[in-house]
Sequence to fold (294 residues):
Amino acid sequence: MSPTPASSPPSALLPQLNHIALNAHISGPTLIFLHGGGSSHKEWLLTASHLPTYHILLPDLTAHGVSTSSLTSPFTLPTTTTLLAALIAEHAHHGRAHVIGLSLGGFSALHLAATHPDRVASLFVTGCARRIEWPDWTIWLLSVFAGTVNWLMCILLPKRWVLYLAGVSADQVPHGMYEDCVGAMGFWDAYWMLRAVKRDAGPRVWKAVRCRTCIVAGEKSRDGREDTRAVGRVLREGNEESLAVVARGMGHAWSLQDGALFARAVEAWVERERLPDEFEVLELDGDGEGKKIV
Fold:
């Protein structure tokens, strides 16, 4: 069963997501950027600096950054997208926004488009094609392992080494983002995020998305070319303008690796222009080659 589109409750009745607004004087369309798991809105500051002609909203997702309280934790996709819809209704121009998401932010963006389609003009998402189908006990064990490794790395290794292992350099990380990540990636945080993606992301959400969507995989990441192609085919059924593409030479967090390229791609998508040459557009209308979504 597909998610049921929901009407947005009055924002006065909901907890508020922490966010910042950029280029408030711009009268054009609003872009809202959704960060990855364990991060914060600061993840997007460098990318946003390349988009001075757009009104931009940068929120902290629930259970992240300053959006952490008993009302917004632990992380779940339904709560997150309800609050995102309220944020867009109140602060975006004309109550709609082009939604950009990375990793957990990409899963959140897809869920938002499926459940609150009136708030989403288009989607540009990356690193969110892989499904999580492990049992909860496996998710718990992986979360304990990941949380322990992250804790040990942050204690034992210099910051620049930790960033190198993550595939980015210190000058690619906005001020304060590293500290937000260190404080947000305990094993319980990882558990709730993975559990949320398992329960409330996947085919039933993808099939409910009707807006133009560009889903991206970093070529050097584990995002998966064929996973991305398969999801792209489902999204194409909902909107014939949807695309699946590969960012050549990029890793999972390629918005940090090359914020200028990411911004150019977002602008091209929003303005309905050709994507930069650094992108390979995947065939979606072929003979069914590759993975299929059930």
Summary: The chain is about 40% helix and 15% strand. The first helix runs from residue 45 to 48.
